[in-house]
Design brief:
Length: 340
């Protein structure tokens, strides 16, 4: 059930509603919008009629039943769309956000060079993997904590917040100590215990779409984050497995209008994992921006041919700078402010 409070009510009136929701046996989740407060009440769906008595309360504007299985992430529960903050950067607002950096953190020189260059070109968040989910156990697994320390160093030097992946529950505290956004990768997108643990840190969670995940399953995986008291969720489309083998994955840009329709959470597009080919990254970014994506997640490497992971899909520093120039008019046409 969704309980919409009237605008500008007093804190005590809000507290009274929360108390009553708990008394009726439901867990309230408060979503604070610019003008009003919306409360999602989660509990036994068969007895929700009891909550309908709240319609008679003077501070309550409306009580609505959410038919969908994804309740807290649904657009119905928060029609205006959420803005998620990482450091000073707002994702989901008018400004387009570009997250860029190498697939993997390899060494200080590589990371610093890339961080400075992507920032100069207009990126506002630095990406880089320290724990890498590799298909083969013989491939580079990431620098681990050393990589996290380098990311923190790059953040200190540039001021850019950092997004990085966590692979397992026993990484959560360590990664949360360094990262501004916790990335849950495609291979872990339905690792519910990991999602719960990540949510409980209170840090923004960037949830990649599982490579074989249906949109409803993705929305429900996101629901785990909001249901664990963390409203800071970003959905990230990174391509799904199809019969097509020309590209590494099939990047599903239809998720942009679909997530906008179904959810209030921002949508991020990752064209790098999405296509697996650097030559396709620019065109997919342009499409994503024109379609209303809130942010892009782009892999950039000073020398992709020598990258320790995902070399074929990383764009060069020069390629990234050109792409950013080309995106600017498209962002304006889509009604977005440019990051710089
Ligand atoms: C990545 O971002 O480098 C990555 C491994 O992502 P995904 O989980 O989408 O494959
Ligand atoms: Mn990668």
């Amino acid at each position: 059930m969704i309980i919409v409070l009237k605008p500008n009510i007093k804190k005590a009136e809000e507290t009274a509603v929360l108390k009553e929701i708990r008394k009726l046996g439901y867990r309230p989740h408060v979503i604070r919008g610019v003008e009003r407060v919306v409360i999602g009440a989660i509990g036994d769906e068969r007895t929700q009629h009891t909550l309908e008595t709240l319609t008679t309360w003077p501070q309550v504007e409306n009580v609505m039943r959410v038919q969908k299985r994804h309740k807290l992430v649904s657009r119905e529960s928060h029609p205006r769309g959420s803005v998620v903050k990482a450091g000073d950067v707002e994702i989901g607002g008018r400004k387009l956000v570009v997250m860029a950096g190498p697939c993997s953190v390899e060494n200080e020189k590589q990371l610093m060079k890339t961080a400075r260059a992507v920032q100069k070109a207009g990126a506002s968040i630095l990406r880089g993997g320290a724990f890498k989910p590799r298909t083969s156990p013989y491939e580079f697994q990431g620098l681990g904590e050393k990589g996290l320390k380098l990311l923190a160093k790059a953040r200190a030097a540039t001021g850019m917040p950092v997004v990085t992946e966590l692979l397992a529950e026993n990484h959560v505290d360590l990664v949360a100590e360094y990262a501004d956004i916790l990335q849950i990768g495609t291979r872990n997108a339905q690792n519910f215990q990991l999602l719960i643990a990540a949510a409980k840190t209170g840090k923004p969670v960037l949830l990649k779409r599982g490579m074989s995940m249906r949109i409803e399953e993705w929305l429900l995986a996101g629901e785990y984050v909001l249901a664990n008291e963390n409203p800071n969720l970003l959905f990230c489309e990174r391509g799904i497995r199809t019969f097509e083998s020309y590209t590494r994955n099939t990047l599903d840009l239809s998720t942009i209008p679909i997530i906008k329709e179904e959810s209030h959470c921002p949508i991020v597009i990752d064209p790098s994992q999405g296509c697996g080919r650097s030559s396709l990254v620019a065109a997919m970014c342009k499409g994503a921006v024109a379609m209303g994506a809130d942010a892009l997640l782009i892999e950039v490497h000073p020398n992709p041919a020598e990258a320790w992971s995902d070399g074929a899909q990383q764009v060069t520093i020069e390629g990234f700078a050109k792409l950013m120039k080309d995106l600017k008019p498209l962002a304006a046409a889509a009604g977005r402010e440019w990051p710089t």
